Amino acid sequence: MKRKILSLASLLLAVLMLASCGGEKYPALNVTDLSAEELETAENSTIAISFPKDEWTADTSISPLTVYYDATYGTDNATNINAQAAGKFPNALNESHIKELFAAVEENPALTIDLCEMRTLGEENVIYGECTTRLTDDAIDMLIENGTLTQELIDFAGGREFFLNIPPVSQIMIYAVVDDTLCLYVGSYYNENEKQLVLDVINVMYENTVVK
To answer: Are 115 and 129 contacting, i.e. CB atoms less than 8 angstroms apart?
Structure first.
């Protein structure tokens, strides 16, 4: 039951990210080529993604569509990546979109933005962000107000202290346009050594995204 609560807590952090949130070339993101690895596909009603089969496991029962790093899956600090199609977006991303997409994030009491800039992934412009997420009393109040969290669930978990004691989560956010649709990929990790791995797998997911 504790793992289910922790999985829910991880989803709440993802909700905080998802709900808050041209032709010019920008510096390329440094990613490792994982094309030789065997991939597995997971999908929901809006999006299909592929990821390295031997190290990651998908959970298609939750939204957004999420994959977990097997070495941490089932632990209190599970590294995961989620993806969602955020709506039609027929234009290439540029710097003018950064403020628009991150305006709500900047006002979120749970989030601290450490980096936000234009980069390229493959041949396309993307918005790349790094942030730290920590549940605070203000963040919990916001989740209650928007219906994501209930007092009943808080009491079941042992009170607010359970959520307040969840370690801060480092996250990578990438906004990218796929088939005229704005897609958002959010990778969450607790170990700095996993940062590059998360970015590499986001790249694989992005390259193999199919929007429905």
So the answer is: yes
How far is the C-alpha of 99 from the C-alpha of 9, rounded, in Å?
27
The vertex-107 CA angle with 159 and 88, nearest 5°, equals 105
Q: Which fold has domain 2-211?
A: Jelly Rolls (2.60.120)
Q: Name the nearest CA neighbour of 134 among 157, 109, 155.
A: 109
- Spatial separation of the C-alpha atoms in residues 100 and 110, rounded to whole Å: 19
Distance of CA 26 to the CA centre of its chain: 22
pTM of the model: 0.85
Q: Is the Cβ–Cβ distance between 52 and 41 less than 8 Å?
A: no
> 140-170, pLDDT tens digit by residue?
999 999 998 999 999 999 999 999 999 999 9
